[in-house]
Design goal:
It holds the Pfam family Acylphosphatase. The chain has 86 residues and is of the alpha+beta class. The chain contains two helices and five strands, in the order βαββαββ. The protein starts with a strand and ends with a strand.
């Protein structure tokens, strides 16, 4: 299994994006993390068998977000448990 890194751009800070991502990830049984970056993007690391479902959701995000792009790359799996907001 691999870990997916997604960098989400657009209006993604100050709109509940991190907390909505946490809720969605937990519902899908995924592990990883989500955090705001200084450049205005949101960094999401996803690990689990349903990672593609969260990745697809990231292209829309929560109601008040506006996603302009999602850059995706692969990372080595960490095998951690749970999803956290940073």
């Amino acid at each position: 299994m691999e870990r997916i890194l997604a960098i989400v751009s657009g209006r993604v800070q100050g709109v509940g994006f991190r907390w909505a991502t946490l809720e969605k990830a937990e519902a899908l049984g995924l592990s990883g993390s989500v955090r705001n970056e200084p450049d205005g993007t949101v960094r999401v690391e996803i690990e689990g068998v349903r990672a593609d479902e969260l990745l697809a959701w990231l292209h829309d995000g929560p109601a008040y977000a506006w996603v302009s792009s999602v850059a995706v790359s692969a990372l080595p799996a960490l095998g951690e448990d749970g999803f956290r907001v940073g």
